[in-house]
């Protein structure tokens, strides 16, 4: 298992659960996205600032493996590490329930950068992210 370079503690809110009493599947993507945004802010990258400069980072592919359900008020760690695969940044993410360290979800989120309507690999922000990439 890779060592995760960032983690965020969160707690399930009642309204995120479905009639079965478990977190609705779509909410896991919210957890993952919030974690990615907080990670980028922690290293000095802001989506708002990048977008204002004409660089838009967008999700191109999401793969999720649901392992075990979260329930209302469960505390969990949402963790990630980042790799570069060609033009893509790949966020390898995992959600782990705190009470028993059980993995609830594993996923990958592929992201690309668009500048003036074209895919680009190099941006003025590369030097910030490069220091946080993990080699496969």
Distance between the first and last residues' Cα: 11 Å
What's the CATH H-level homologous superfamily? Hotdog Thioesterase
Give the percentage of residues in beta strands. 35-45%
Mean pLDDT: 93
Element order: H for helix, E for strand: EHHEEEEEH
- The total of helices stands at 3
Q: What's the β-strand tally?
A: 6
Describe the overall structure:
With 136 residues, the protein is an alpha+beta fold. It has one domain: Thiol Ester Dehydrase, Chain A, CATH 3.10.129. It is built from three helices and six strands, in the order βααβββββα. Strands 1, 2, 3, 4, 5 and 6 form a six-stranded antiparallel sheet that branches. The model has no long low-confidence stretch (mean pLDDT 93).
Please give a handful of descriptors for the protein shown:
136 residues, alpha+beta, Thiol Ester Dehydrase, Chain A, six-stranded antiparallel beta sheet, elongated
What secondary-structure arrangement, pairings included, does this model have?
Layout: E1 6-11, H1 25-42, H2 47-52, E2 55-66, E3 75-85, E4 88-97, E5 103-115, E6 118-120, H3 126-130
Give a quick rundown of the structure.
The chain is an alpha+beta fold.
